[in-house]
TrEMBL record:
It comes from the Eukaryota. Signal peptide: none annotated. This is Zinc finger MYM-type protein 1-like. InterPro entries: DUF4371, Znf_TTF. It comes from Aphis craccivora. Residues 108-203 form the TTF-type domain. The lineage of its organism: Eukaryota, Metazoa, Ecdysozoa, Arthropoda, Hexapoda. Pfam families: DUF4371.
Amino acid sequence: MDSSEKRKNTIVSYFQKKSRSEPLSENNETLTAIPALEHVQEQDISSDNKNSRNLNIKNTENVCLNKFDIGLFNRFTTKQIDSEQIYQILTNTWYPEPSYQFIATGKRNLKFQYKWLDRWKWLAYSKSQNGVYCKYCISFSPEEVCSQKLGKFVLTKFDDWAHAIDKFNEHQKNKYHLTAISKVDGFLSVFNKKQNNIAVQLDNNLKLEIEQNKQILRPIIETIILCGSQGLALRGHRDSGHFQPDELYSAENDGNFRAFLRYRVSGGDLILKNHLQNCKKNAMYTSPEFQNEIIDTIYHIIINKLVCKINQSKCYTVLADETCDISGVEQFSLCVRYFDKETKTLREDFLKFVPVLDVSGKGLAK
């Protein structure tokens, strides 16, 4: 009777799909709640870790990763990110709370100790991989230094908690780790603008030389501006050749520009005096070519400031007139009449001379 009841199934029932009514085990449910991660290797779920996985499976439920979890980076991805992201990795790496429950691993169920993070500042714990890395070496270590190849802490995680202290001390003595530390210090200093440009660091005398050149050029440029503002010609009949700053009065007229430079030297400008006495002949910054270069630069600065003022006014008038210079060359003078908002007055400023080939009305209109 019992055997007949057990065989009540018809032949059709063997082709019907049966649904599994039995509930999933607690471990299976927990495992499906853990998101798949690219960086979790197959060895992490090997048979050696099955016991520890079952004991502490609740700690990994609904894992929410920080984007700066060190386990999401490796030495090769850091080469492809910008300085801002590397700065965030160095200064904003995910840091567990003191109450965080670390996962036990191995047959002895050993865990990572929170106090290790305070003792070794270069350590960074990865929540995604339950291991630690050296954030300095990941960011800046070379391929190898003195035949010391990269391994744990850099290319792969470290999770041998039984020998953690010895391995930590051993790693921080590696030459590639010391090299990475020096690079990190320089990177953070430059990023935080505590140091000058790297070009200045390579040559400690470069910044001093730049400042000295500025101090040398300042009196020369001011002298050119003085001559221009007073309508004085810069050059004379003998304005080239060697320059003697000690002679207040030259035997030959070498122009107002050189005369004013001598006057500045006699007034106590030691920087200018030292420059004129000790500089190379091709680096005196007093040649006619250099004077013209400074005048041209000043011209463009003045024009740009005038154009900005004119554009700020609501309306302006262009004044044009034909004239000729002392050599008889026909020129077209351009002036602008506009309202200056700063001084609340009407101004008429000269802009430039334009050479004229055709003085007829049609030619001037062009």
